[in-house]
Design a protein that fits this description.
Pfam families: D5_N. This protein is α+β, with helices and mostly antiparallel strands. It has 31 helices and 31 strands. Helix 1 runs antiparallel to helix 2 and helix 21 packs across helix 26.
């Protein structure tokens, strides 16, 4: 059978979700109708909710996908985290109030079995009666719906109630054997027989019936979706036999839907009902002590590594992550730090320290209670009272002794190497589930700038404490700075000396301030150019000191060498993970910049990369790239408009020398480099001020001055001289002499290139083809010129130059002659 993939959109109340995420813990009573398979216990709820929050857009609307997990039949499960795999009360809490309606199939599993029994011509009378009078029958036998379902889906259950025993016998002695032989269901039985899952091997017939039901359940769900879509009702959240829809629903529409399902699924009769979506907020916002106390009691009672692993996970909180069972990170201070290896030796000491603390607390409490009893005994006035208190004292002494024995026994187990290894393995599996959706320094959290003492929110201009779920991997490496007037004046003086023009100075600061954001909204490639000792290096060093780990300085080969394949190691690209400001050194003489690489680095494209012998990860370059050069390098494809839309050239016009003699020269301060690191934090405050000034409506305005635009155009002319040639020297005119293509080509590569001090290397064929792109209205046809039949332009006029005696000369020279 073909795999079913369903895509839909679900709407989440991010504020409600955040309130849950910020709780120390969440304790939720199980809904009696909730499906055990709806929640993946391998992923702790808090981690799941944080992952959901971090992957939900600001407007709360998120696209999600449902698909089969193992076989291509049965239920579809939500990929990643979402509403389906949250507990029912959490689902109700984190969606907008009143937005969804929960449309369920009433008594779904037994209704399906009744329909299937009719199809095979062998109905079960007791099952039909149960479906008609379920509420009365449950009250009569003091049972709940889940208890009946579990009773029926296990073949080896010993059922004492005769009414249900007959249904159970029909399911396994009549119903299942007939289904196994039918073409529609035989592939499911084959799947069950070949399964190596322990629960399937223990209960093959029950597993078979469950999967048959789940197949029909999916058919019903898809049929309901078709019906709701034709009525323009959003069917967003799929919860196996039910779904949450957004739209106007009434009883009449539900009856129409039932009729549609019956017609669509060959006579399948179901009853639909709207189920209230309610939640007890007091139950959700429970005390932290409740959960850890429950976990401790379960672990001590069962003494299994599984229960101890759950206790360890709670004690660890959000402090560890594990990727692919080999790459570990730990939250320490205000950032996540990579670990050299698995922290197996850290987990058990944390557990033992907690156990020792709990033992002492309980021991202290019991001894205090014993002391109270002893005081009561001393004050007892009758023998009967003394005897009663004496018995309580003996019980309390036994309780104290039992507590000591239990503690010693459990500690001994936990210290056993095999038990410790089992705990660590379980913890690692669960942490791997938590880590699956984690991305450090992700674009979604572009507004967070991490310092040693917290994170700065660029949207609000406020500092706050770093949370583990901010997933901060890089920081500035210093605390948020305090304004220092003297250092501030020094920083401003340095920047002003490098950029005397106020407009260009402001833009230079804006370029660097754009690097504060962990996103690349403008898709620009900054180029700083000018002859040596003009302040480029000073500004770069200030940025390095200010940005800390957010700044990196790769070699020019990042731009000049061809990128490797996705499977090959890419250490140069690994350095870009999480970087926000990247300064690239000048390429060697004669090397050109790979425009494909430039577009990739500035175009928000994702690529798979890996370190040598490391795991693969996804890189989405978010940095602002800045090329520092004395001489402007050429592009390998300089005629590509997509490149020049991105390049912004800023000229550094001042030269710092020992003995200034010209207006463009200033006195060099050779001690400056020694204080730049100390000025970095103060420079950060200046950049934050610029960011606040130009941050408008969640977007940073990048206002490029006219002088900078002119510089950038000149750089394009250097790389695409033909574009400049056509723009400056040529025009389309109706009455002008015919112009042989060869003559125009000779002007371009000869006299004009010499006058412009440009090196032009282009064949005549390439010249003609490129000119056609630059001047699409230029007309070409063959003409007789000086006795030769030549290809000529008939409407192209040349400015500033003229043919004389078959040679090109400037107009000025011709006029003087």
């Amino acid at each position: 059978m073909s795999e079913v993939i369903i895509t839909s959109q679900e709407v989440i109340d991010r504020e409600a979700l955040r309130r849950l995420c910020d709780l120390q813990t969440i304790v939720i009573p199980k809904d009696e109708d909730e499906d055990d398979q709806a929640d993946d216990e391998k992923v702790p709820l808090k981690a799941k909710l944080w992952s959901l929050y971090n992957n939900t857009p600001i407007d709360g609307k998120r696209t999600t996908t449902y698909s089969h997990r193992k076989a291509n039949f049965g239920r579809v499960y939500q990929e990643g985290v979402g509403l389906q795999n949250c507990p029912s009360q959490v689902r109700a809490y984190i969606v907008p109030e009143g937005y969804y309606k929960d449309i369920d199939v009433v008594n779904a599993i037994f209704t399906v079995f009744e329909n299937m029994g009719d199809d095979i011509g062998n109905p079960c009378p007791n099952l039909i009666e149960y479906n008609r009078n379920r509420k009365d029958i449950l009250e009569r036998y003091n049972l709940t719906k889940p208890e009946v379902i579990k009773m029926m889906l296990y073949e080896d259950r010993k059922i004492k109630i005769e009414f249900f025993k007959e249904i159970h016998t029909w399911l396994y002695k009549t119903f299942a054997p007939i289904l196994k032989k039918q073409p529609e269901w035989i592939h499911i039985w084959n799947y069950v027989e070949e399964s190596t899952e322990e629960n399937v091997i223990r209960n093959p017939n029950g597993s078979f019936l469950s999967r048959c039901y789940q197949k029909v359940e999916l058919d019903i769900l898809q049929s309901k979706r078709k019906f709701f879509q034709t009525h323009r009702i959003d069917s967003d959240v799929l919860i196996h036999d039910g779904q949450w829809v957004h739209g106007e629903i009434d009883e009449h529409l539900l009856r129409e839907c039932e009729a549609f399902i019956e017609d669509d699924l060959r006579g399948l009769v179901v009853h639909l009902a709207e189920k209230p979506i309610t939640v007890s907020k007091e139950l959700l916002e429970a005390n932290d002590l409740m959960e850890i106390d429950v976990l401790r009691r379960n672990a001590y009672k069962a003494c299994s590594h599984y229960d101890f692993a759950r206790l360890v996970l709670h004690l660890l909180g959000d402090r560890y992550l594990c990727f692919e069972r080999k790459t570990w990170f730990k939250f320490k201070g205000n950032q996540w730090l990579p670990l050299a290896g698995a922290p197996s030796e850290e987990f058990v000491p944390i557990l033992l320290a907690y156990m020792e603390s709990e033992f002492r607390n309980i021991d202290k409490m019991l001894k205090s209670e014993l002391k109270d009893l002893q005081e009561r005994f001393a004050k007892a006035s009758t023998e009967a009272e003394k005897e009663e208190v004496k018995k309580e004292m003996n019980d309390k002494e036994e309780e104290i002794e039992d507590n000591v024995k239990q503690h010693g026994h459990i500690v001994g187990n936990v210290k056993t190497p095999r038990f410790r290894e089992s705990i660590f393995k379980d913890v690692m599996e669960r942490l791997e589930g938590v880590s699956r959706d984690v991305q450090f320094d992700a674009t979604e959290r572009w507004y967070l700038l991490a310092f040693k003492d917290g994170v700065y929110d660029l949207r609000t201009g406020q500092m706050r404490k770093t949370r583990p779920t901010d997933y901060v991997l890089k920081t500035t490496k210093y605390k948020f700075p305090v304004h220092n007037e003297e250092k501030s004046r020094k920083v401003k003086a340095i920047i002003e000396s490098i950029h005397p023009d106020p407009e260009e100075r402001e833009f230079a600061m804006l370029e660097m301030a754009s690097g504060l954001e962990g996103r690349n909204t403008h898709e620009k490639f900054f180029t700083w150019s000018g002859s040596g000792r003009n302040g480029k290096g000073i500004e770069k060093d200030l940025c390095v000191a200010a940005f800390g780990e957010y700044c990196t300085t790769p070699m020019a080969t990042l731009l000049t060498e061809r990128r490797g394949t996705s499977s090959s190691p890419s250490p140069d690209l690994m350095d870009l993970v999480g970087a926000r400001m990247v300064f690239v050194s000048e390429p060697e003489n004669g090397q050109t910049i790979k425009t494909a690489t430039l577009r990739f680095l500035t175009g928000n494209d994702r690529v798979r990369i890996r370190q040598m012998y490391g795991m693969q990860q996804t890189l989405e370059p978010i940095a602002k790239f800045c090329l520092l050069c004395n001489d402007l390098p050429l592009m390998d494809a300089g005629n590509t408009d997509a490149v020049w839309d991105r390049i912004v050239l800023l000229l550094f016009r001042i030269k710092f020398v020992d003995n200034p003699k010209h207006d463009f020269e200033k006195k060099i301060d050779r001690s400056l480099k020694t204080i730049l690191k100390d000025l970095g934090p103060q420079f950060m405050l200046e950049l934050l001020a610029i960011h606040r000034k130009y941050f408008d409506g969640n977007v940073l305005r990048l206002d490029v001055p006219a002088s900078v635009q002119k510089m950038s155009s000149s750089y394009e002319d250097l790389n695409n001289p033909l574009k400049k040639f056509t723009r400056v020297q040529l025009s389309i005119e109706s009455n002008c002499p015919v112009l042989p293509t060869t003559k125009l080509y000779n002007l371009f590569t000869g006299l004009w290139a010499t006058d412009e001090n440009l090196s032009v290397q282009m064949s005549q064929t390439a010249f003609v083809n490129e000119l056609k792109k630059q001047m699409p209205t230029a007309k070409k046809e063959r003409k007789w010129v000086d006795g030769s039949n030549l290809m000529c332009y008939t409407n192209v006029y040349v400015r500033d130059y003229k043919l004389q005696d078959d040679k090109w000369i400037p107009m000025e020279e011709n006029a003087s002659t």
